[in-house]
Batch of 2 targets.
Target 1
Amino acid sequence: MDDCIFCKIVDGDIPSRTVYEDDDVFAFLDVNPLADGHTLVIPKDHHETIEDMPADVAKELFAAVHELVPAVEDAVDADGSTVAFNNGEAAGQEVPHVHCHIVPRFDGDGNGPIHALFGGPGEMDDDELDAIAERISER
Ligand code: 5GP
Ligand code: ZN
């Protein structure tokens, strides 16, 4: 897509610190890292969200994430990583080209789990949980 920053990075029109590339997937360091080694993994083709990606692209993307997580962690001597997608504007996605964040984590870094985003667990009774599970599985 012409006005997409990440398409321009894939095409080499905007420079990036590239760490991985294959036929379908491209990975590079985030320009404003949340931690040393913060890496973005993207499909080369423009798709806005996870649900917009064809299944074969999603498989290739996850295969690259699977390879990159240990490489990134090892490179910065991390103790773990937070691996996440901001999927859609409501979730805070700013660049509308699907990307997986690999953010290295360090013992005692104090940044908390993904659960910290939501201010604690929600309350829901069994009937509501059953109804939601059914709606998801039907689809
Ligand atoms: P989002 O909020 O969409 O999930 O994350 C977008 C990420 O892309 C941000 O972490 C931001 O720092 C990163 N980013 C935005 N523009 C550029 C760029 O031109 N180059 C690189 N390397 N990263 C970028
Ligand atoms: Zn794009």
Target 2
Amino acid sequence: MAEFHYAVDADGVATITWDVPGRSMNVMSLQGFGELDAHIDTALADPAVKGVVITSGKKDFAGGMDLNVIARMKDEAGDDPARGLFEGVMGMHGVLRKIERAGMDDRNKGGKPIAAALPGTALGIGLELPLACHRIFAADNPKAKIGLPEIMVGIFPGGGGTTRLVRKLGAMAAAPFLLEGKLSDPKKAKAAGIIDEVAEDPVAAAKAWVLSGPSIVKPWDEKGYKMPGGAPYHPAGFMTFVGASAMVNGKTKGVYPAAKALLSAVYEGALVPFDTAIRIEARWFTHVLMNPSSTAMIRSLFINKEALEKGAVRPAEVADQSVRKLGVIGAGMMGAGIALVAAQAGIEVVLIDQAQEAADKGRAYTESYMDKGIKRGKATAEKKQDLLSRITATTDYSALSGADLVIEAVFEDTAIKAEVTKRVQQAVGETCIIATNTSTLPITDLARAADRPGDFIGIHFFSPVEKMMLVEIIKGRETGDRAVAKALDFVRQIRKTPIVVNDARFFYANRCIIPYINEGIRMVGEGVAPALVENAAKLVGMPLGPLQLVDETSIDLGVKIARATKAAMGDAYPDGAVDDVIFWMADQGRLGRKAAAGFYAYDAAGKRTGLWDGLAAEYPPAADQPELTEVQHRLLFAQVLEAVRALEGGVLTDIREGDVGAILGWGFAPWSGGPFSWLDMIGAARAVDLCKGLAARHGDRFAPPGLLTEMAARGETFYGRFGPAAQAA
Ligand code: NAD
């Protein structure tokens, strides 16, 4: 079935309408490119056609390239994948350049005007195609998002968007759109110069423009074109490029190949004529697509993330369990956040705490959150009222009547939680699912307080709830499918990404992040310079070093978890060396950011001013410091081996969840695609060798798990053995 339709009206304007069948949003496929190419040829060859308008048959223009196609392009590129990819990309450029030249000769004579009319969102190739047209019209649709978000999934705009946007806006002005994937609504996109006009009826405006006999030569095809803001060897351009290079390397720490490649494409492209610049862009794009990091990022951050959001692990036979009325017990930090995100999703919320004052404070969180949004022009007073009208703050459990899901977020205490579960049960009906937001207590134990343990489940949010995209759903031993479906349908309603794991100490995310923090603290105890620990973490792509992370989550929480873990494990407890350091820190009153004193020092405004120099008095750095890679391997393997053990022990049942959960849950080096993708990148055999070395030098916690050793011996990869294709076989 056709993805692009072609029609010519009585005025001689050909309209090419993009309308991919069976999808709510257009995405570009290889078939689509072929059809577009053929329609352009028809329009340019037909003397009755005066010009062309390219638009969409849907409410939006396009969401971008089908990233599954990019993933496949590489696999199908034959014996010489780099060449295959480069030629594929150049083929795409050929079509776009044909649109841009529109039949003009080499003296810029002749040709037909081609305009883009965007009814709504235009992302990625959905903006790169309009950028190749001669004028871009967009509807005045404040919900529309316009931009080039490719960098977010580990690639960069490789359909000419990089070269064209830099030439249209200048390198400096294009930087936030290319390097940060910044999206704008049509009015802001016009103000930035990305699109040309905002119109009530963009198709009519585009047709009128096409018929007005406009000049269609792009500035960069004119003689004497100068790049806005200056090319690299212009004094102003020099400043821009030196600054951009420093900024990109500062932000990415050199671990994201796409950002560097983008910058190279922009810099080198700026020194040469347009058609050469496009070839350079295509070469750098190929270079990025050939890097295993981009494959892994696309797989985890796009394909698998979306699959999980669409219910890849949802019990298929259970009917829709969308939540209509949600109860939240405990209006503290987490409960208040859960109430906010549920109200944003249009769900009615009853927010309960012990005292009315506490419940009101929880509801007021939504109020202050919306006030901040209003100040920044991102929300309206009506929207705020709308959200607040959905949240009832009370101490009265009878208000829960009719709730179909209740989430408990009271103090982390088994007895208090059990008492709350019992009270909830008395107030709700027989089909209500009860969930706990506990971060450490086994779900199976908490389910003992429930009359119907099959309808009891863990729904573990991360803090701050409104920002963190992952929700970890935990099945207790008796949790049934309906509870799992309820939790997943709720997470879909609030537009977050779920993973479903089995019950075990610390579930999945905390299980992996605690050893990371502990390894950092352990090194400080051994005399490794704290700055080396923190920088090693950042240079391997972790968003926060372990010492900063424990400052953020608070040192007394670390102490509390250590005490509880020790009590549970007895003599097998392995982290005494870590406790020496954090117990000492707690004794010094250095509890982390909230006390404005931790591994870091803070100023009066609570801003970090640097690592705390007082630490050296108790834990002086040793004269001999380890190699950077040794520190990095300790920090990475501390997390990764725990992920492997979670898979081996059946806590994780799907490696996609392990990878997506790691990146969204605790920021595990996103460039790697997640712990399992990283292990596949270096190979199980090398991982086992590295682990053996680490175990010999630093202890048994690094001993390779049996599963990894077995995979090394058999030459297996995680995605080969446990990936969706292997599971389906
Ligand atoms: P908090 O101390 O900010 O809030 C707890 C709230 O529960 C308080 O308002 C308290 O008054 C209320 N409460 C206590 N007993 C109650 C009862 N019997 N009935 C009604 N309300 C009661 O704590 P928090 O940080 O929001 O954590 C809540 C839960 O979420 C804990 O189980 C915690 O482990 C878990 N959790 C916390 C985080 C985090 O980062 N803070 C992350 C994930 C999960």
